[in-house]
Design brief:
By secondary structure, this protein is mainly α. It folds into two domains: about 55-160, HD-domain/PDEase-like (Cyclin A, domain 1), CATH 1.10.472; about 180-269, Methane Monooxygenase Hydroxylase, Chain G, domain 1, CATH 1.20.58. Helix content is about 50%, strand content about 5%. It has helices at about 60-65, 75-95, 100-105, 125-140, 145-155, 170-180, 185-195, 205-210, 225-230, 235, 240-265, and strands spanning about 1-5, 10, 10-15, 20, 35-40, 40. Strand 5 and strand 6 form a beta hairpin. Helix 7 crosses helix 11. The radius of gyration is 20 Å and the shape is globular.
């Protein structure tokens, strides 16, 4: 394909600047500015920013897409791409290692997010971290950098605090993933997840749930329950200043959404 900026064929770069045949779906290496997503891939970076660490390659978009073919709607590949884009934004703002952040974002839900997986979802961060090691070692990543990606993935789950994010890259992935549960996208995902699991969008929470976060034996876990238990507290859990600023506006939108949902549900609006 012709490069409109130079009027000559577009060519990709290898480590050290050597030319190779173009790969339209290869994710860019760590760089100051990544191209926008187009047709399932990314525009190639400029030659000056296209050098990647020798011997290691990023998974491709198409390769990553296959990992999520059976994922349930709230954790599908579109979720992964949104987390990927937000993680890039946070990494640049906070000075994190872009390559580690990108790999972790692509792989963070790669296992255990299948539709109907049920309890497997609870350990998805652990099995995804193991899968990440297989993928990245095959791509030539060093053991130290593989372990850095694995830590990001193991530490990103909200309901498991056994491994807190210790590195900046892990904090960036955690924040990017949680931001996708807020705002308009967060409202849509909460409704989708409830519907997928046969739960209502809204039921009045019990007094026990309001006081302790524990449901009564026959109490459903509606989308509104998830908002009360998790979503409204996400900003307090975020690590980076950049994410906290983004979360503030998104949380206002999400709160307004559930207020309106309840008002319409009860016939008051």
């Amino acid at each position: 394909m012709a490069d409109p900026r130079r009027g000559r064929p577009n060519r990709a770069w290898r480590p050290g600047g050597a030319l190779q045949r173009p790969h339209p779906h290869r994710l860019p290496p760590s760089s100051r500015r990544a191209g926008p997503l187009l047709a399932g891939g990314l525009l190639p970076p400029s030659p000056a920013s296209a050098r990647r660490r020798k011997g290691s390659m990023m998974p491709t978009i198409e390769q990553a897409r296959r990992w999520y073919e059976t994922a349930e709607p709230a954790h599908d590949f579109e979720h992964v791409l949104r987390v990927y884009r937000m993680a890039e934004r946070l990494a640049r703002a906070e000075g994190a290692d872009l390559e580690i952040v990108r790999a972790a974002a692509l792989l963070h839900d790669a296992r255990g997010a299948e539709s109907g997986s049920g309890s497997a979802r609870e350990a998805h961060h652990l099995v995804s971290a193991e899968f990440a090691a297989e993928v990245l070692e095959a791509e030539g990543w060093s053991r130290a950098r593989v372990q850095a990606v694995q830590h990001c993935i193991r530490a990103h789950r909200f309901r498991d605090d056994s491994e807190e994010p210790r590195t900046l890259e892990a904090k960036v992935l955690f924040d990017a993933d949680k931001l996708d549960a807020l705002g308009a996208i967060g409202a849509a995902r909460a409704i989708a997840y409830a519907s997928q699991n046969g739960q209502p969008w809204y039921t009045p929470p019990s007094e026990r749930f309001l006081q302790t976060g524990q449901k009564e034996p026959d109490e459903p876990h509606s989308a509104y329950h998830e908002y009360l238990f998790k979503l409204r507290h996400l900003r307090e859990r975020l690590f980076t200043k950049t994410a906290q600023a983004i979360a503030e506006e998104r949380l206002r939108y999400l709160s307004d959404f559930f207020e309106r949902l309840i008002a319409e549900w009860e016939g008051r609006r």
